[in-house]
Amino acid sequence: MLRFKISPIITLNARNFATKSYQNAVSLYLERARLIDKIRIILRSNSQNSLASILNHPSLDTFVVANALNSAPSPHSALSLIETLKTIPHFTHNQNTLHALAKILAKSGQIGKLKALVNGINSGKFRNVARVSFMDQMKLYASANDLESVLSVWHEWKLSQKPPNVESYNIIMSLCAQTGKDYEAVKTFSRMIDEGQIPNCRTYTVIIEHLVKSGNLNPAMEIFTILPSMKVKVKRTLRQYMILVEAFCGINQFDVVKTLLDEMQVDGILPTRRVLSSLQKMHDAGFVEETLELIKEMSPDERIQNVTLSDDNDDDVDDEDVDKVKVKFKLRPWFDPRILASSLRFWRSEEVSTLENAKFIWTTHLISKMIRSFTSADSAWEFFNWVANQKGFTHDAHTISKIITKLALEGRVDFVQQLIPKIKSENIQLSCNTVKTVIDYYGISHNGEAALRIFQDLNTLCGNLSKKSLLSLYSSLLTTLGKCKMGCEVLDTLDEMILSGVVPEIQTFCKLMHWFGVEGDVKTVQRLFWMVKQSGLQPDSDMFKILICVYCKLNRVALGFRAFEDMKSYDLMFDVSTKSLLVKSLWKEGKLREAAYVEEESIEMNDDLMSVDLQRVYGVYYDSFSITNDKKDLCEIESLNT
């Protein structure tokens, strides 16, 4: 008889499958992982008898089934697993398995069955199973390319007490883009903004992907370039980078790809295997130095073997199915860093010993995922130190970046300080974005002194930095010091910054003026406003709004009125709420003529003005398509048939 031999990331003895009265969390994880891999390999062999035999295993539970369904090779094989489960008397579906089934029905385009399942869950047919949320319903129907149902759910959501969120608009935009409805995608983005939603990084991912797929690579790159300089900072994501790298490699614009790879390094983002073929093409075109190390990191680790079958005994497989499963699959072992990290959250010696005996092959990607998955900085730190002593692995800039940001997020300055000497002694250079993130997190935990110490080590931690990177880091430091109410340090840092030839952005000045205004320090607010003008920057509407609000709330209304007149000289307008505050403050002090003047001069103002940044993005997006305005707005109609 055949026995499954799984010798990739983990090597397990058969007796690990013996039923035990007690298992530590890591042992349970490993047992489940092996059973999931058995099901995965059988689903690829189309052997129903062997599948039924494995599903009768006493360790089978909803966790195993849900993950086996999610990793099935096709919707058809996943549905065959569902059918076979009907013959297993001890198995009962729960929320996770039913939601996994819903995803399978969506991917296979079985809309009728999907709707029946969703309606059954939401009507209470299944005990202890929560309703399928509006968001999850939209995701399911989008996966099935059913725009009609997506819009139906969206309109139902709008009628409920909680209005749809940004992600709901993203789903509609993405599905419209996938189905060639260019106008509808652009219009949905416009409506999102009009209805007061703030686009997030996924919104821009949808836009960039839409532009790339429609052949508009330069507009896609233009929007990608805009993101870091927007007032509401938008983080550029791995997916955005991957879309653009693949696209520009595809048209042999390798200089653009080189720029993208350099910016990825600055942002501390490691490419995934998805772009391996693109980078290989770039390498073959002569860009050896730029790609060699990345290709090496992304290439499959030869130490990690595929799931294989051997000629040993295994009671889970019937003799009659031997020939059907005597195949070697190129199948990597199942792995869930979130669950394994959860199993190690208490970092008990028994569980750590089990982990060590499992003989995992630790890689940079694997370690990074594990560190990110720990919910506790203490457990992540224990794991980080433990894995450093495992054979065949050495920490690099990527894993150190992950742990240092994890520690900073939870305010563990003590652990970060222990790590800094190691970084220095081993000449490991962190990305600018990693150090920026640490400084930002110190602002959340009010560790301004620690942020200053990190900033003082910039040259050692990051090496030579461009003026653009220095601007970003100085801005983060000023923001953190402001949050920590370290006024003197803010002004000292600001002077140092300007003397070094780095001029703060308008947004940074706005934040500082707001914080000093909250503290009642009018003189510093005025000094900052003077510095803006001296630096050659032009104050914007947001800055004047902050200035006027500070003056009014500190009973310096005359200064507020003077700021209003100054604002007019820049041909700027503020919003209705700021105008209302200024008018009321002027009335309160008996300055009726000035109040009437403000009312008269600002009658055309509107709270719903689209920001300059969003106008620019919308303009690039809109102009990339030949659009006529004679089409219906999908968000205004409940059915495509109407």
From TrEMBL:
Coiled coil: none annotated. Keywords: Repeat. Transmembrane segments: none annotated. PPR repeats lie at residues 165-199. Pfam families: PPR_2, PPR_3. The keyword Repeat applies. InterPro entries: At5g66631-like (IPR044175), PPR_rpt (IPR002885), TPR-like_helical_dom_sf (IPR011990). It comes from the Eukaryota. NCBIfam families: PPR. This is Pentacotripeptide-repeat region of PRORP domain-containing protein. It comes from Lactuca virosa.
